[in-house]
């Protein structure tokens, strides 16, 4: 989409992957936000190179791009675990037992909040609403929604993914 | 490009073939259906059909609204009736193929009801309370047509309103029809849609923009996503009507990143509409042109505020703008812009095709038409229901939703999204009416109603709502940024039984400052949950404050660490960048 000159090619390395994500044209990347979303979709996170590349493309400052990246809570800045688990803490899921569900998953993953497991297997993220409020409590495993859970069935669903089942 | 008559003829003949030649199996696979396992059901159906060598049409459709019964498998046998099965997991799906599709024998269990001519042993679906009390306008095709198939929409009357407008109506006639219908914005502000459109008419163009807001970050609301996943062409037709009426040239559907179902289905519908000459240049060979594209936002609730939304479309931090200038003068990319919610725009095709009266005769007072309600929480039949305005909350909760399960009593209703209010059980006679609800200290907002039973602590519920409002404050204006932080701090210490004397007054003082001084609705309404909770559930608060105990024990659990600061440039020191002098302590 956009000619870039700032980053040197590193043949299949991070710079090339960033540039490829921005220019592959699946969706128009006309803005800072749409470019960052394209990289995030491709890599699962925003490396420093994505911030710099986007700043170069839009002829703006790194601060400006970082301001956008840090605003939207879906962006992360380190490589994610092999699986991404999002748990909903919105009011409906809360009423349906989200706190116990979150406890149970955290206990299983040995996490005390959001974050990545030590072995890099799972990134756990809180979500304000996963959009399936009629099936609470809901979580999403690698973008696949699972609802009507209990603390136990949620932990089982996550462990099945970890076991590669 | 084909004419409307050619498209309609093709659509009708495809529809005839679809309903008469071989079994047509529909599975509700919107986000709620998927969370209930619809994708697994679809896979099971597909492999069983293949294994048994049965030739059938299998469509993933949208949401019929009966989310409690998901996954729903809906089967039309050639020459037969439509029979719907509820809670059909993979095992049930295979049984349904083996007995009903293969042998015409109705299996035990899972039967939800029939549509069309009666089926022995099954109830009439339209007689079930969840369906009977509905009046489906924007959702009339939801769950019935495949969202990815423009011909199915056309066969069911789709694009006839656009054709009517383009062939026999002037733009001013379209606006007058929308004004006469009494349609008010369904995004929360409830302003007259026709009058809003008329503001854009007077602005210079091209380009002029119609923005459709499907940010829908409200927990408890899924109706916008439901429409896009179920019937995206209805929205596209509504946007085209708005474009024709206002002289706009471009439409943008604004959707939250990550909501893949609505995004994929809308993008596919747009592509089809271009292919069929329903979007683009010379639409339906009338010489009128209109373009539509999808724009994605990252996760930020405030990006659903109409001026913040424009900044998000421009790829910036989604923060509200000062008004004036209003979007109709200076909008997205500095050009005149009209912003409507998905539901609002989706009513336009029916209003134009069936006449203003068809809409204005439904409803009550100045709230005409229907309300699209997302019912969730402690309720027997959660779902997506379209009901006439004027219906009471009690009818929605008890007659449609089946009331609170487990023999428990209703304690509270949370309406209008996290910025709306909490209502008590005595509120069930309040009607779905924008103005009546506002007077009662709640808002209809985007149509979410969350039901909570007697085992729910009002302080705990309020804390979750306030945590959401703090987490989503964009940080642009300090009354909201600091106010939400303070309110959360205070409500958390009340929940921890550590309240200090004067906390209630302090919250009111902070809240009233936010109401008066915040830039957008997020801060202005941010005190709403606390005020209404105090009003209706004073006893719960008193217990936490005076007796240091929680009526249900839910406040004994430590709260999640979910504060959010949406930082500007901090902690960012890219390795390869030379660090400017003095930057280390930024």
What secondary-structure arrangement, pairings included, does this model have?
The complex is a heterodimer of chains A (165) and B (586).
Chain A (H helix, E strand, L loop, with lengths): L13 H10 L8 H12 L4 H10 L4 H10 L11 E6 L2 H5 L2 H12 L5 E2 L5 E6 L11 E3 L2 E3 L4 H12 L3
Helix pairs in contact in A: 1-2, 2-3, 3-4, 6-7
Chain B lengths: L3 H17 L3 E5 L2 H5 L2 H14 L5 E5 L11 E4 L5 E4 L4 H14 L7 E5 L13 H4 L17 H6 L4 H9 L2 H11 L11 H9 L7 E6 L8 H8 L1 H15 L3 E7 L3 H16 L15 E7 L8 H8 L23 E5 H13 L1 H5 L2 E2 L2 E2 L1 E8 L5 E6 L4 H8 L9 E6 L6 E3 L9 H6 L8 E6 L4 H15 L5 H18 L7 H15 L3 H5 L2 H9 L1 H10 L39
Parallel strand pairs in B: 1-2, 6-7, 6-9, 7-8, 12-16
Antiparallel strand pairs in B: 1-3, 3-4, 4-5, 10-11, 12-13, 14-15, 14-16
Helix pairs in contact in B: 3-4, 7-11, 7-14, 8-9, 8-11, 10-11, 10-12, 11-14, 18-19, 19-20
Any descriptors?
heterodimer; A: 165 residues; alpha+beta; Glutaredoxin; 2 domains; five-stranded mixed β-sheet; 7 helices; 43% helix; 12% strand; elongated; disordered N terminus; B: 586 residues; alpha/beta; Rossmann fold; Ubiquitin-like (UB roll); 4 domains; 16 strands; 41% helix; globular; disordered C terminus
